[in-house]
């Protein structure tokens, strides 16, 4: 029994020593991770660092795996690469960050989605509908976990709540713009139809006048031809009279 007891104690000492090493390594890991994230966050405040500077932390994704994706999303956002920023924010959310940090990610994600809308080019109903669809998608990002309330002012993140209210205002304005545009389009179409009807009426009146003029000219031409024929007959008759004509003919002498 005694050797077994010694072996057991030896194993315990080894495990304790290993546990101490593991704890030390984990502390170093966290320290390096925190330092790298802090350095990257500081670089973000100073300018627009390359997102690749944070990529090294993607393999060190415990216990806060969302952090590098969030930082890379912010880097892409500052560089106005909104598609890439959206992708990184969505990846960050997959790690289920704490409530306070989740709302930060969702606000930035919604802002990146809003930047994808070209508010200067909304000249058609189709473009307005697409913009409204994007706004509603950004709104859902803010409300689906309660960062902003779906209705009312009770969201638990003030910035998310304010952004959701601003999105609601933009949606309302675009819907009103669409209604006004539809009304203007309908009015313009009615004006075009009225103008076409007026033009058709003018064309009919013009055609009627043209036919009347053609008939009148035809009658005048026929009358002129008859007068010319009558004049020609009179001329021939007078010429025959001047030449002796038929009036002096006394018959043939045998």
Give the tags.
mainly alpha; single chain; Serine Threonine Protein Phosphatase 5, Tetratricopeptide repeat; 6 helices; disordered N terminus; 254 residues; rod-shaped
Description:
The chain is mainly α and 254 residues long. It has helices at residues 2-46, 66-78, 82-93, 99-115, 125-143, 158-242. Among the domains are: 24-97, Serine Threonine Protein Phosphatase 5, Tetratricopeptide repeat (Alpha Horseshoe), CATH 1.25.40; 117-184. The chain has 6 helices and no strands.
Total beta strands: 0
C-alpha-based Rg, rounded: 48 Å
- N-C termini distance: 190 Å
Q: What name does CATH use for the topology of the domain at 24-97?
A: Serine Threonine Protein Phosphatase 5, Tetratricopeptide repeat
Mean pLDDT: 76
Using the coordinates above, name the CATH class of the domain at 24-97.
Answer: Mainly Alpha
Strand content: under 5%
Low-confidence stretches: 1-6, 18-37
CATH hierarchy: architecture of the domain at 24-97: Alpha Horseshoe
Q: Main beta sheet, described?
A: none
Could you estimate the helical fraction of the residues in percent?
over 70%
List the secondary-structure elements in sequence, H or E.
HHHHHH
- Large-scale geometry: rod-shaped
Structural class: mainly alpha
Number of DSSP helical runs = 6
How do the helices and strands line up, and which of them pair or pack?
Blueprint: H1 2-46, H2 66-78, H3 82-93, H4 99-115, H5 125-143, H6 158-242
Task: Describe what is shown at a glance.
By secondary structure, this protein is mainly alpha-helical. Among the domains are: 24-97, Serine Threonine Protein Phosphatase 5, Tetratricopeptide repeat, CATH 1.25.40; 117-184.
